[in-house]
């Protein structure tokens, strides 16, 4: 007989180093003696707009089948000891949380499904996690202000109730003696792995910007991460990469690149620190501001919102610069301080005509003042109205996205959209 247990862990890393996924990778090894891991370890990205997040706002869940019921306490102690040993307690924003789900019921499943989705889309209070833990008698361990209980419970909730859409990431970790020094990865092998497995893997190389993007530059334990649609695809790419020694690797199932964070609604429903899909009409021509950011305004039903393509989105800004008042668009991104940070855009229709002053004697006629029509400076002819002329647009309708180097963890790349999906 097997004894199931779900472990959720969150908020053990800091901006300076460490990584919740590395802690999970070490833990997976230490827990082997007590049982087996069901399915894949889960890597869950929570709301990317949370102020208190340390880095990628990642939480982890492991589904275990224990061999013996008497190991339950040993497993809990092993997990707590690993967090105490590896979490960065000195960082004020690192507030680890651990939950252990040992039994389930239908009411708990439906409550947790909602709670988990809210942790990705909404802003939760620590007390909401605590209330849920008490209500269902879920055992837990919270450190410091216990904020990590939110993500720990959310990740465990997804392990219990399942992910409607998911991808895989194979994360390879570095030997400890190399943490903090530059990564030794053979560039040509990465390019070869990418071209052999794309589009079943993605975001390994940013071709437009000629950058390898699957390896971080921070001093953390991650060597690189390969994202893809299947275990076989990420394994195939991994097998081709030549690099410094890999200390260990884990294949996670994850909500990365699924757009799970996006709420499909209207502009007048928007709140800060959430992410949305919004439809509207461009109501102000794009402007470029200091720092190379490009801003457009879109309106719908009397409500309006400014949308920004920030400088790091590189070539994506050229698409935004080409929009004009009257174009219909659907925008995808996070809202902060009343402004949307664009992740994707779908151009639904483009203005194809414009009103211009009539041409006479080979030149544009001049306005004679408001309501006075237009006059030709050469021959003196007068015309009442402007004329509709076709407009050259150097852009097509359809989807455009930020390049891989600027992609957020949760954003779904266009390569994952089926042909006719909208
Ligand atoms: Zn004329």
General description of the model:
This protein has 422 residues and is α+β, with helices and mostly antiparallel strands. The protein folds into four domains: 3-161, Alpha-Beta Plaits (2-Layer Sandwich), CATH 3.30.70.2200; 167-254, Glycinamide Ribonucleotide Synthetase, Chain A, domain 4 (Alpha-Beta Complex); 262-352 and 393-416, OB fold (Dihydrolipoamide Acetyltransferase, E2P) (Beta Barrel); 353-390, no CATH class. The protein is 22% helix and 33% strand. The protein is built from eight helices and 26 strands. It has helices at residues 20-31, 72-86, 106-121, 126-135, 148-161, 187-197, 231-240, 316-321, and strands at residues 3-10, 35-37, 42-45, 58-66, 97-101, 139-142, 167-174, 201-202, 205-206, 211-212, 222-228, 246-254, 262-264, 274-289, 293-300, 303-309, 328-336, 339-349, 353-356, 359-360, 363-364, 366-367, 374-375, 382-383, 387-390, 398-401. Strands 1, 2, 3, 4, 5, 6, 7, 8, 11 and 12 form a ten-stranded mixed β-sheet that branches. A five-stranded mixed β-barrel has the order 14-15-16-18-17. β23 and β24 form a beta hairpin. α4 packs across α5 (148-161). The radius of gyration is 26 Å and the shape is elongated. The two termini are 47 Å apart. The mean pLDDT is 94. The structure holds zinc ion. Zinc ion (ZN) binds next to loops.
């Amino acid at each position: 007989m097997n004894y199931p247990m779900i472990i959720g862990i969150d908020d053990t890393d800091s901006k300076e180093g460490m990584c919740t996924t590395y802690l999970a990778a070490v833990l997976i090894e230490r827990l082997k003696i007590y049982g087996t891991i069901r399915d894949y370890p889960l890597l869950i990205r929570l709301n990317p707009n949370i102020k208190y997040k340390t880095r990628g706002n990642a939480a982890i869940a492991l589904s275990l089948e224990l061999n013996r019921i008497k190991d339950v306490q040993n497993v809990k102690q092993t997990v707590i000891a690993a967090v105490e040993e590896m979490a960065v307690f000195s960082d004020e924003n690192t507030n680890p949380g651990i939950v252990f789900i040992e039994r389930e019921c239908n009411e708990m499943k439906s409550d947790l499904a909602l709670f988990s989705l809210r942790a990705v889309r909404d802003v939760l209070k620590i007390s909401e996690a605590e209330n849920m833990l008490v209500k269902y008698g879920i055992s837990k361990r919270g450190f410091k202000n216990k904020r990590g209980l939110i993500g720990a419970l959310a990740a465990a909730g997804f392990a219990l109730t399942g992910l409607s859409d998911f991808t895989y990431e194979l994360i390879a970790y570095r030997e400890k003696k190399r943490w903090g020094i530059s990564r030794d990865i053979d560039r040509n092998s990465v390019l070869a792995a990418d071209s052999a497995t794309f589009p079943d893997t993605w975001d390994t190389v940013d071709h437009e910007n000629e950058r390898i993007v699957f390896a971080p530059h921070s001093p953390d334990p991650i060597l690189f991460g390969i994202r893809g649609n299947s275990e076989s695809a990420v394994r195939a790419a991994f097998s081709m990469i030549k690099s410094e020694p890999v200390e260990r690797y884990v294949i996670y199932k994850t909500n990365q690149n699924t757009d799970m964070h996006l709420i499909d609604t209207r502009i007048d429903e928007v709140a800060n620190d959430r992410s949305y899909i919004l439809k509207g009409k461009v109501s102000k021509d794009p402007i470029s501001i200091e720092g190379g950011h490009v801003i457009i305004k879109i309106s719908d039903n009397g409500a309006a919102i400014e949308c920004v393509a920030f400088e790091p989105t590189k070539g994506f800004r050229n698409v935004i610069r080409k929009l004009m008042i009257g174009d219909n668009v659907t925008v995808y991104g996070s809202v902060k301080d009343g402004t949307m940070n664009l992740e994707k855009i779908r151009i639904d229709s483009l203005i194809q005509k414009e009103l211009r002053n009539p041409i006479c004697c080979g030149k544009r006629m001049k306005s004679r003042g408001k309501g006075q029509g237009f006059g030709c400076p050469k021959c003196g002819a007068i015309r009442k109205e402007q004329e509709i002329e076709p407009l050259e647009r150097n852009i097509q309708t359809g989807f455009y996205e930020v390049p891989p180097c600027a992609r957020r963890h949760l954003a779904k790349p266009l390569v994952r959209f089926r042909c006719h999906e909208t």
